[in-house]
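ingest -> validate -> predict -> emit
validate: passed (alphabet ok, no gaps, 172 aa)
predict: started
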Amino acid sequence: MFAALGVATADGVYALIAVYASAPLAPALRSAALSLRQGSAVVLILLAVCGATTAIRRHRQPQDEAAAVPGAPGLARAYLGMWGMTMLNPLTMVYFTALVLGQQPATAPGRTDQAMFILAVFLASASWQLALAGSGAILGRVLTGSRGRLITAIASSTLIGGLALHLLIAAS
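emit:
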């Protein structure tokens, strides 16, 4: 739950930045879009390789089931970890900036409209992330065995690698 709220907080921060800094940032983001995509792709490829390597290594060295399942991180660590990883995603900022710039009416939005947009982003993100965390916890009970962890780690690493390749193809 705290990890999900970390993601939602990062989305809220990006919405706040997009609302108040979108006009001056738009030209800079456009000119840096290729570099941001390439950098994001490199980070995603590294995450995919590390995730798959760790999963295979753990699967090849079976341990006692109780010892093999890492303990849950502390609440602050879960929140800050997911907040930090989400803040590292520059495409989130690009998305919110494009959304704000594309939806601006002829007259500048008032402070109430801006605050409502930021709050709506946070609440939508929080509800979605909490739904994912809840369903993931339920599904996680089914996939906690050694083979289930290996399959899900390889699948997620493959998905991350595919996203990285998509970023690289879109960047060229």
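Residues 2-171 form one domain.
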